[in-house]
Fold this sequence. Notes:
Layout: E1 14-19, E2 42-48, E3 52-53, E4 59-60, E5 69-71, E6 78-82, E7 85-91, E8 97-99
Antiparallel strand pairs: 1-2, 1-7, 2-5, 3-4, 5-8, 6-7
Amino acid sequence: xxxxxxxxxxxxxxxxxxxxxxxxxxxxxxxxxxxxxxxxxxxxxxxxxxxxxxxxxxxxxxxxxxxxxxxxxxxxxxxxxxxxxxxxxxxxxxxxxxxxx
Length: 101
């Protein structure tokens, strides 16, 4: 945590995600207005917690790791702002899928 930068370490089965910014230009180079840009439900995992615990105390491993690209639900999550950057915290079970390839 040197240099004044904050770092958030999620607890339990939480995942910190940075949403992918929608394209502001078309493939042909035309600048798109905000009304024409659809909301992107894709993000990059920035940090993950250790995992949830069973009633016996065993840790359930997380299904994603840092750097993974995930499919996000349209609604939900907790908005977090760290060093003027927007992130969203989700539970591991709220993530819809893992983008591969």
